[in-house]
Amino acid sequence: MHASAHSSQVGASSESLSRDYPAVALERDAASGPLLLLCEHASPHVPVCYAGLGLDSSERERHIGWDIGALAMARELSEALDSPLIYATQSRLLMDLNRDPSAVDAIPASSDGTTIPANQNLSGAELQRRRLWLYEPFHAAVDALRARRMAQGLATAVVSIHSFTPQMAGFQRPWHIGVLSDTDRRLADSLLAVLRARPDVCVGDNQPYAPHQGVYHSVGRHGMQHGLPNVMIEVRNDLLQGDAAVKQWSQLLGHALRLACSELGVR
Description:
This protein is α/β, with parallel strands linked by helices and 267 residues long. The protein has a single domain (3-263), classed as 3-Layer(aba) Sandwich (Aminopeptidase). The protein is 36% helix and 16% strand. It contains eight helices and eleven strands. The protein has a seven-stranded mixed beta sheet with strand order 1-3-2-6-11-9-10, with helices on both faces. It has a two-stranded antiparallel sheet with strand order 4-5. A two-stranded antiparallel ribbon has the order 7-8. Helix 6 links the parallel strand 9 and strand 10. Helix 2 (14-20) crosses helix 5 (124-151) and helix 6 (186-196) packs across helix 8 (243-263). The protein starts with a helix and ends with a helix.
């Protein structure tokens, strides 16, 4: 089935989708801690009207559909650092909110070798529907919270939380944590220094991804463009299996972020 045919079966406007399946959730939005936490790939959820995008649940719940463990880790960090969290509530397979909406992979036709049947040959109307339903509300919520914090004079670092698959395209990724940054490396360099002081942690600098791959969209838009310290953190998802593992890595990252932010005067 072509996605354009599939899309016509959805029969829902972006307004009704936004009402029935909101794209964004906020937690601790009034918290005054140093971070503005983002989690763009927090959920594998696909509304029933999209019929699973033509995939069964086992495919959608793999790393292609969401960042496994990322939301749990982001929530731990939000609580530990008394900082607000904004996260996506729908699958990245519907639209990747950490991509420029005009990018070819903003709505992936395939991911890690898996074809997404309902994302083939999308109509202009469907592209617009998903942008208005998913991308715009998420980033408007981040814009509003960032502006409010800046108006209140709250020191703020924009930090996006992700996880990555241990193997991609046949390559075993050795890193436990990846610290991603673009031209503003203030927070990244401080964070790398803290993490690399631990001999038991393998840390990647712009690994396993880097901004030139288009993955720095949210943090660039909400952090770098406003002169705020910013970083994107990736943790390998096999290290996030179960509550105890999530807590362990969240505590390590929380400690590192607290130190790194303090060095920059973000408290």
